[in-house]
């Protein structure tokens, strides 16, 4: 069974409070998305494989280690882009491949409008989406990344609904899920309660 990790870091609680606050303006909202994404990425990347190497410091040779595999970040457009920028800065060798979905307002089903994958899949992929609501977009994205040929997949989201967590676990039991918070429930429009509203609109100022 894939692991479910809910961050309990004090900085995660702190930045989440600002992120959820309806008074937070877009520029500050984007900043919090970046901070929380870094905290999630540090947790999710604790077990990345390393290879031993040496460098010359000004004083002597030093035994060092460097990342030993191809790592892909797969943001789900639009809102996932806010997470990818911050994590790419932390992991300079990461490749960024994109998936575009929007959620149909009536059926709440994800509709694909963009997919950009290379012919050779990376070894490890981190799918990025701030909101895991019904889990439809995440499950669709995981299925596509799996079909691409990636063996080790993790899902990083800032806020999750219990319904989405259960759906991802049932459909993709080998995927590890990292989130800053598992909220109470979905409302009648499949929005996360208490959540933060519409993540894409708040990042891109498109209310
Ligand atoms: C949001 C969010 C997820 C999806 C989550 O995207 O960023 O992709 O909804 O919902 P689900 O778990 O029920 O599938 P949205 O459709 O609002 O598109 P946007 O990112 O372009 O705003
Ligand atoms: N998408 C969002 O942006 N927010 C939600 O609460 C649910 C889906």
Question: In a nutshell, what does this entry contain?
Answer:
By secondary structure, the protein is an alpha/beta fold. The chain has helices at 10-20, 26-44, 81-90, 136-148, 162-171, 199-204, and strands at residues 4-6, 50-56, 61-67, 71-77, 95-96, 98-103, 110-116, 124-128, 131-132, 152-160, 176-182, 185-186, 192-193. The strands form three sheets. Strands 1, 4, 5, 6, 7, 8, 9, 10 and 11 form a nine-stranded mixed sheet that branches.
How would you describe the overall organization of this protein?
The chain has helices spanning about 10-20, 25-45, 80-90, 135-150, 160-170, 200-205, and strands at about 5, 50-55, 60-65, 70-75, 95, 100-105, 110-115, 125-130, 130, 150-160, 175-180, 185, 190-195. It has one domain (about 5-205): Rossmann fold. Helix 1 packs antiparallel against helix 2 (about 25-45) and helix 2 crosses helix 3. The chain has about 210 residues and is of the alpha/beta class. The chain is about 35% helix and about 30% strand.
